Amino acid sequence: MNCNEIVELINLEIDGVLPESEQETLARHLRLCHDCAERGRQLRETARLLSTLPKASLPASFAQAVMARLPSISRKPALFDLRGSVAAALMGILGLLLLFLAGYGAGSNHYVFPQTEVELDTELAQVTSPLEGVTSETEAAFDSLLDAIESVPLEFVIGMCLILGSTALLFLHLMNQATESPTAALVRIRRPRHHA
Amino acid sequence: MRQSDESLVEEALLRPEVFAELITRYQNKVYSLACRITGDAEEAKDLAQETFIRAYTSLPGFHRGARFSPWLYRIATNLSLNYRKRRREAVPLADKPLPDETSLSPEEAVERKESQERIQRAILGLPGLYRTVLVLRHVNELTYQEIAQVLEIPVGTVKARLFRARDMLREVLRSERDGTSI
Known about the structure:
The complex is a heterodimer. Chain A contains 9 helices and no strands. By secondary structure, chain A is mainly alpha-helical. Chains A and B meet through α1, α3, α4 and α9 of A and α1, α2, α3, α4 and α5 of B.
């Protein structure tokens, strides 16, 4: 083993990773080679000096100071976080419940099929009076529509709003989870450009 | 049981306040690294702060399965080296002493301070390529494998650079003593 290889073994020994099998080789060489022994002594002293460098420390308040300066890239609005999803799901369930109650509470399903009545009326109007049919048909359709709107229970309206709202919230949440923050794409940590 | 860094990262994406724990865990390591690479305690504090802000803003792009600490050290190393490039002139350590927590007798303290300043000056005299591996190994006490992860270079290259850096430092310290052995 030549002196360059021995210097590598000295360095491995300094770092505490010299294989046991090489220890005797190193020791034998150092006993015989004065130059390597001296270089080894200097390298170990250099490493010892390096180890005396104090560990610099920052006060405990540093973390909070940094937290206060953090930009809001991943600080998502409450609308988009997990709580937002849960709220959306609860809204949806409540909406469905209200729709269910509205269906039974109204006692009839006339609001469900208002168009059918309108179509039947307009067909009759066309058969009996084709010329006046246009006016009467429009009026009849309009009246039927008003009746249908008025007869829609409040629970139905609220229920539908809640379901639509929850669907929109869930959609926004899923979109937010799926896309990477645009800021992250802009921040690219460059590899160090060393100069020899 | 202590929560892993990587699971804290996952959590911090949903709850930003969790990031404070990661700062607490690494603030001194990052600060020490910046101190030794730049030789400027005040600037190192700003660089440590900048490191955590950069890390935080890059969290959404942090690869799942990767380790947090090498990634964080990489940010700190790059920022510190860039700072050194901007201000190539060495900052006199006498003007801005690095913090020292140890309590020694006055004579020992003076002797140690001189020795530390000597070694710090010698480190700052090394090219960034070598200074970085030396600091990561001796200040942050990382293994060859960990340094390789930080710098994204093969382990063999880490060893070559580290051994060369130590030898350069040995030469500098020896020449400071006018040819006498250290």
